[in-house]
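PROTEIN DESIGN WORKSHEET
SECTION A - STRUCTURE
LENGTH: 238
TOKENS:
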């Protein structure tokens, strides 16, 4: 650190500066007060008039009480409407889920019937095959049809005719039963499709009726509320 010179403060100069600052601040305050006095608003002169409404205090209190009661009723009404709408939505969702489950059960039942029909057809085919095989074994050793055209047919020709006729009857009976089963399956499928259409139409009609009932009830309550407001407020036309 180099050499330095210590200067003693001048107390007189310091006091003069402080006094000048104080005097300047006092002058500004005085100027502000003077400006406020000069710009002070003058007295207000109003034309005397009668204040208040045409209704008495008791009537005003009664109207306030009526408005408060209407407000409570409207809040309660909105809360009830919300609960009803929520309940209707939940019921519609439940009906929708039930319909889906019913359709699944019906499709499963149709599938089971088709599988049962296929199993029966396979069983009939197998039975038919075994019957034909048995009849073919019975035909072994018998003369052919062209060799049986003799004047006096013997017992072998009669046996062959009987077996052929029996085989033909079995084929016709099996074909008839198979055709009946197919027709029955077709009728069941048509009946099930018709039933599904009827249930779908009934469900759609029920949903529309429920929605129409809820909307009509809401409109009726809204109309009643509007009429009530018009009774309490005769001049209100909104």
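SECTION B - SEQUENCE
RESIDUE ASSIGNMENT:
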């Amino acid at each position: 650190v180099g050499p330095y010179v210590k200067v003693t403060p001048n107390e007189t100069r310091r006091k003069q500066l402080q006094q000048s600052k104080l005097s300047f601040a006092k002058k500004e305050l005085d100027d502000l007060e003077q400006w406020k006095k000069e710009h002070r608003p003058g007295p207000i002169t109003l034309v005397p008039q009668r204040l208040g409404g045409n209704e008495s205090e008791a009537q005003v209190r009664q109207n306030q009480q009526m408005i408060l009661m209407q407000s409570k009723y409207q809040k309660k009404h909105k809360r009830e409407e919300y609960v009803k709408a929520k309940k209707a939505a939940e019921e519609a969702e439940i009906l929708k889920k039930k319909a889906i489950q019913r359709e699944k059960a019906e499709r499963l039942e149709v599938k089971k019937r088709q599988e049962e029909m296929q199993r029966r057809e396979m069983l009939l085919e197998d039975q038919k095959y075994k019957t034909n095989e048995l009849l073919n074994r019975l035909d072994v050793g018998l003369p052919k049809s062209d060799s049986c055209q003799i004047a006096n047919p013997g017992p072998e020709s009669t046996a062959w005719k009987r077996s052929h006729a029996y085989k033909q009857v079995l084929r016709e009976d099996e074909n008839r039963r198979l055709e009946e089963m197919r027709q029955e399956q077709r009728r069941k499928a048509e009946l099930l499709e018709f039933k599904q259409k009827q249930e779908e139409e009934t469900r759609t009609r029920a949903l529309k009726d429920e929605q129409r009932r809820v909307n009509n009830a809401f409109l009726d309550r809204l109309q009643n509320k509007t009429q009530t407001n018009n009774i309490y407020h005769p001049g209100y036309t909104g």
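SECTION C - NOTES
The CA atoms of residues 57 and 74 lie 26 Å apart.
Confidence is low (pLDDT under 50) at residues 141-153.
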